[in-house]
Design goal:
2 domains, VC0802-like, S-adenosyl-L-methionine, tRNA-binding, six-stranded mixed beta sheet, alpha/beta, Rossmann fold, elongated, eight-stranded mixed beta sheet, binds S-adenosylmethionine, about 20% strand
Length: about 450
Amino acid sequence: MWYLCVFFHRLLDYRRAEVESLAEMLGVYSSLEWRLPENQHPDSPFHLVNLPSEDVARNIANRSILVKGIYELWGEGSSLEQLEESIKSYPEDRKLPYLTCETTFKVTVDSFGKAISFQEQNDRIKSLAYIPFKGRVNLKNPDINFWLMETDDYGAHNGLPPVVQRRIFFGRLVGGADRKLLPTYELKSRRYLGPTAMDAEVAFLMANQAQVMPGKLVYDPFVGTGSILVAAAHFGAMTMGADIDIRAVRDGRGPDCNVWSNFKQYGLPLPVALLRADNNLPPWRPGLKEIFDAIICDPPYGVRAGGRKSGGRKLLKGIVAPYTVPDDKRTGHIPSTAPYSLAECVHDLLDLAARMLVMGGRLILSSRYSRVLLTMVKTGSYTEKVAEAATIKHQEFKENYVKRLEDGNLHSSVFSPVHPQLGEETDSKSCKELKPKYRGKYV
Ligand SMILES: C[S@@+](CC[C@H](N)C(=O)[O-])C[C@H]1O[C@@H](n2cnc3c(N)ncnc32)[C@H](O)[C@@H]1O
């Protein structure tokens, strides 16, 4: 049956994807179809979705983050007259069970792209007098929630891009997102926070994309303050995280302010493990594979929170030999690290996911750098041969990438640095001053 699916006007590219992931999680993806209501743009909040049953529609809506509501659509039109005609022609046997005197009901008037005054809302409700409501009105806890939703067209100078044309929808609410969980989990009330802690809305969206549910094991290889795993634990998953920074996973800001306390704050089951591990040097014993149902993460990005890998520059360049930390210094020792490019980090992550995800498991990767959320599903087996071929391809990519930066290429022929070239006479002191202050610390 076709339902009206109304989305929040947020994260537009991921709204249908979230519903599809949840439909697949509930085993009904093959029967899902989409349509747009008349005169609506794909960015409009109003979409029509074909789902096998009302129970499925309710379960998807209640679990989602971006679905405002899924409705049994009784009628729609570009004017109140057209709406009336459409509602009157909707089959009686579908309407009457919800209009009996035993049921209580409420009509909510909502709008998108325009404000409707209280008076106008009352007028809209009165204009529905042709619907034979027999039950009592209950504004607090009605059995049936009816919604009249109206959009204005963009000609009304409402500042919106042309995503909607005037349309009025009337329907019975089947289910809606539990957005209350967002204020509960919002970062400003989180006990342990870091500069790159993941926003709750995106973390919950990622958990939905990963089809997290009780009994699943979810891993975040860049766990930081644990925000992504908190969302996964909320949906009942067992969680496990790792970070190269031992201070993040072991210490936090003290015994009551760390990754563990973020779980305790919400009464969630604690992670099964938090590891100090480098994504570049995976800690798994040889032969161990296919243990995670989902890997959800937010890899390091930018200069401030850029990736690091174990070893230190001198060690990686062979200037110093590998060393063993003396036993008495082990607890306080912070191993040295070197820069870890995004390309290498993503390559390692794909390798980790290919090896450690179960078949059909999902890798959810948020790149705040390019503001995209990627969802990948494991569909083929991981073999040493496949891994070797991928490493060669990655190496080729790295070499070509370096070639592009060599002298004589388009970059160096067309562009020059903003700062003037240092001349022969420039002394070493002024040379030092020109260097960015953070050099050596972060790059
Ligand atoms: C963007 S932050 C993740 C933030 C996290 N999602 C949160 O909500 O707090 C990236 C994290 O990756 C960690 N990291 C950087 N390089 C790493 C590596 N090679 N292996 C594992 N973790 C690494 C950083 O210490 C940082 O905590």
